[in-house]
Design goal:
This protein is an alpha/beta fold and 420 residues long. 38% of the residues lie in helices and 14% in strands. The protein has 14 helices and 13 strands. The longest helix has 25 residues. The relative contact order is 0.11.
């Protein structure tokens, strides 16, 4: 590889080159086993004699920085423990805090992360390979910024079956996760100072996305019926809610509240962003219709932008989400997406479209729901057993539960919510 070296400073050329290479090894810019450039090539690159480079390589080898291999070249020594880093820890106290990596936990309680062992890897690998059979999707740098056409059609069909959301492929906008969908809507709609309402408690990255777009973010309280829109400022531009499984409490927004919010948004020309982030996982009870379905003015021009993701159903690292916005926002969203990254990973999107079309995604979700239902019940039972210290909030869906620590619990101050 090319190596950037600066031969400034005092001393001979050999001294300066030695300092640069030794520093690069100590700083780990050159790692153990890395090949140093051939002496002839490095000499030509630096405009110095080859004998100078050879002399420096011999010195590095003599001092243990490098190993010379006959007929192969000169390599950085693997025994880099001999070299103290140039930048030392700021204090011995900070160094003392560094502890060995903990042993892997028997159970993962990371919030909202699906079990990687449930991922349909065999089917996924097959679909990715089929997408790679042709390089056409990768060559065309000007693909539709709305996303892979087959995936948009698959999402429309899936949502129609699973969530009664009526749309077609043209109404679906594929994004790199739900967070990008929300960020794009913010960039398209928000002017500096505009008011955006979010749930409190709620999902912090969403609040940050609106703030980064220049919005004035206000809180909307959450109670046993979900988010309460009764005190929204009249000039609110966007209302963000998680009605099917409020994050993090798990409460479901009641039907009267849903209708109240939709009426308010229509009367005040506001957009409601409905984040249906883990709607696939409902274990008990019949789910209420999404806001998008209840929107009486829908027909493609309602007041709801319906946002979803495959991060909970499959894996977060796939970075595939979507939004079904009012139709007049599709053009601005395409234009804004082209300014960012044009479109997402077409191979991933194509493979996911195949997973949906073959019915393998539906089969995967049936298996995953059975597994998570059992884990949901086990965790709820465990939390109920600590009713003296925790109050479990009702929840019939999703990949997390929420409990409150009572005010009177020893060592606590105020009400604290713990998601697990």
């Amino acid at each position: 590889m090319d190596l950037l070296l600066t031969l400034d400073g005092p001393g001979t050329l050999a001294d300066r080159l030695y300092r640069e290479l030794a520093a690069a090894i100590r700083d780990r810019r050159l790692a153990g086993g890395d090949a140093l450039p051939p002496s002839r090539e490095l000499a030509a690159q630096l405009g110095i004699s080859r004998s100078t480079v050879t002399l420096v390589y011999e010195r590095l080898t003599a001092e243990g920085y490098a190993d010379a291999r006959v007929g192969s070249g000169t390599y950085v020594s693997h025994d880099t423990t001999l070299f103290a880093p140039r930048v030392q820890p700021r204090s011995t106290a900070a160094s003392a805090d560094q502890s060995p990596a903990a042993a892997p936990a028997a159970y993962s309680f990371r919030l909202g992360i699906p079990d990687v062992n449930l991922f349909p890897l065999t089917a996924w690998r097959r679909h990715v390979n089929r997408e790679l059979d042709t390089v056409a999707p990768l060559v065309d740098g000007h693909a539709d910024s709305s996303g892979h056409a087959g995936l948009r059609a698959g999402i429309a069909h899936h949502l129609g079956m699973a969530r009664a959301v009526t749309t077609d492929a043209d109404g679906v906008f594929v994004t790199s996760g739900a967070q990008q969908a929300i960020s794009l809507l913010a960039r398209v709609l928000i002017h500096p100072g505009d008011i955006v309402a979010v749930e409190e408690p709620g999902y912090t990255p969403v609040r940050q996305a609106f703030q980064s777009a220049g919005a004035q973010v206000v809180s909307m309280p959450v109670d046993a019926e979900g988010a309460d829109p009764s005190a929204l400022p009249a000039s609110t531009r966007i209302v963000y809610v998680t009605p099917s499984h409020q994050f993090p409490t798990g409460v479901v927004m009641s039907r009267p509240r849903r209708l109240q919010l939709l009426d308010w948004a229509a009367a005040h020309d506001a957009l409601v962003i409905e984040d249906d982030y883990d709607s696939e996982y409902r274990f008990f009870d019949r789910p209420l219709e999404p806001l998008h379905v209840l929107d009486a003015s829908a027909a493609g021009e309602g007041v709801v932008a319906y946002v979803g993701t495959f991060s909970k159903a499959l894996l977060p690292g796939l970075r595939v989400g979507y939004v079904i916005p009012p139709r007049h926002l599709l053009g601005p969203l395409r234009a804004e997406r082209r300014l960012l990254d044009w479109h997402g990973d077409l191979v991933t999107q194509g493979a996911l479209s195949r997973l949906l079309a073959t019915g393998q995604f539906a089969a995967h979700m049936r298996r995953a729901r059975r597994t998570y239902r059992a884990r949901h019940a086990a965790l709820a039972e465990g939390l109920h057993s600590r009713a003296d210290r925790l109050t479990l909030l009702p929840s019939s869906a999703g990949l997390h539960l929420c409990a409150e620590i009572p005010d009177a619990a020893p060592g606590t101050a105020g009400r604290v919510r713990d998601a697990a």
